[in-house]
Structure formats: structure tokens, C-alpha cells
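Team,

Forwarding the record for the chain on the shared tracking sheet. I've put the sequence and predicted structure together so nobody has to dig through attachments.
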Amino acid sequence: MQTNFLREALYEIVWTTPVKTVAAEHNISDVAFAKTCKQHQIPLPPRGHWAKLEAGKKVRRQPLPERALGMPREVSFGASRWDYYGSAPKNLMELELIPPRPFDEALSAVRDKVTKRVKRISVPRDLSRAHPVVRKLLEADAPRRAKYWAATYKSLYDAPYFDSPFEQRRLRALNSLFLCLEQNDARVTSSGKNPHEFYARVGLTDVVISIDDPKVERTSWHATSDIAKSASGMLAVMINRGSLTEEFQSTWQDKPNDKIESHLTKIAVNVLVAGESACRGKELAHYEWLVRRKADLIERSRIEREKAEQAERARRVKEEQSRVDRLLSEAKALREAQEIRAYVASVKALNETSHEPILETDIASWASWALEQADRIDPIRSRRFLSDQA
């Protein structure tokens, strides 16, 4: 089950109640609890803190640092990483949903702070100081290079991915950007041997980045660029548009006298701001999802209630009709019982005046049986009619 705390509220809790106690109250291991607090930069009391407090000694409370870029204002325990919107409270229908409170700083102010923090990016001539992601791509490309140059017939399908001047320029730009992002607490990852997109995790928010020829599509089956492709080929940068509002630039492209390398510092700044922007957008999206979810639950409840009421009305109508049908059936049974009795009386009377009467014992035996049948189906004699009042 997911449990959420406002970051400031959780900070107050962990400095007034031992972590083991808080974790146990919410069925969370104290190790996982402490790890999550560390992830959200919530300082925990040091060893011996509670003993000093109990002994009446003064203790120092570490201040709560400013929330990092891309980190949510709520701390979640037990949340699924695959659930984008998070879970909904069980009592959502009864809750009054309040829109997220405004952030202390506008994104423009955040961008100004990040701009002051990020150092100017320069692009070296080589990749001797390669970021782990770039180094991994180069190391994976080495066997392809060796095989390609050793072959008599050189096929594009065997060519190394990153040997062309264009690809080397692209990797140098990516590498410089990645190193800057890592210095500013954003972790960069990629997938595949020849990736078009890379992922910068800003706080807990992923931002998609690409630096590439805007006209090509990459594949792992063969090299995207001809091995002789010039470094002057067009390069374009894109940050996934969903992360930034229109006031922030998310695309850059080479111009005759203005290459993207001169914009890498601004790109790094906007990637970091994009992480914060997407984080804020996710908070609003979660609220809007809760509003839709609540409305959906209320509508479902209304439909189910109407169906239940309709079913109850149908049940009552059916029950009343069943009682009426039983009344008619009992009335018919009473008439038939009376007809049987009248028939028995007529047989006896006719037998008395008959020229060849049936033996009295035979008539009596038959009449007894017939009257028993009449009593059996008679709803009054059997008191069966009283069961309808139950």
C-alpha cells in the first residue's frame, strides 16, 4: 500500500519520532525508510540522538535542505515505478480534492538559479575523458571496427557506428553535455548499441535528449552514417517537448555560423529545468487524474446504485406477482376441492336411487379416498393460504 508524506511534514516526523517506530507504523522496513529519506535529502537524527534527548542533553537538528530539481514535494513509500499517476486513496470519493499549492519559485526563477550554477561547457578535441555512457558505446564499437578493417570486402552493415567525423563530433558534444549534467546531479543513461535518444534523470524525473542528424533514423543493424560522413553535417538537439513550457527552448539546430556546441551550456540548463518542469507537471497531472478518477468512481457508484434500485423494484414486482399467482392458484385449488366434494355427494345420492347400486363399502372406500384428495388440495383445510402473509 502506498503511503505519502509532504517532504516538510516527514522531516518534522523523523526528528520527533524514531525512524524504526515511524517505519513500523506504516509497515515499511526501517532500511527502506531511511534510504527513501536520503533520496529526498531529508536528514535523519544521528546515532545517539534519542539517548541524548532522553538524558535531557541538548541536540542539534540538521536543517532541511532545499528540494532538489526534479524531486517531488511528496515522499512516497510503497509506490510502483510503473504507475505514472500513483495510487488513489481508498476513500477518494469522500475526499475534498485541493489543487496543488503554487511552487515557491517560478520556473523562470529556477532557470536563473541553475544558469548561475552551471559552468560553461567547452568541447574537447577528443574523448580521452569520456562519460561512462559514451565510453560504453565506444568499447562496444571496438570489435565492429576491428572486424570491419580486417575484412577484404567492407560492408556498411559491418562498419563501426561511431568512426565517421560526424559521429565523432556528435559523441564529443554528447560527452561534454553528459559530464556537465553529472556534475549537476543528473544521471545519464542510454539503451542499445546505436542510440538516438539518451535519458537524463533529474531528481526522480527522466528527460529525453537527442543530439543527431534530424534526417536520419538510427538502427542497431548497421551504422547510421557513412564512415566518411563529414563533421560539418547537420546536428540538431531536442529535449522532449512534454518537459518544458513554450517559454523555454527545447530544440537547437546548426546554422552556418552558429553550431550547437556553442549552445551546450544553455542546453544543459534547460535539461535540468525540464526535469523540474516535468516534475511539477506530474504533480498537477496526478491531481487532475484524481479529479477524473473521483468523478469516475462517483458515476460508477451512481450507475451501480441505480441498477441495484432497479433490480430491487423488479424483485418486488416479481414477488408481488408471484403472490398473486399463488392466490389465483389457491382459488383454483379451492374450487377444484369443492367440485370434488360435490362430485362425491352426487355419486352417493345417485347410488342410493340406482337400480343396481354399488356396494356401500366400495362407495365408502372410494368417497374416503376422493375426499382425502379434496382436503389435500384445499388451501384452507391445509392452511397453506396463510403462508402468503409471511
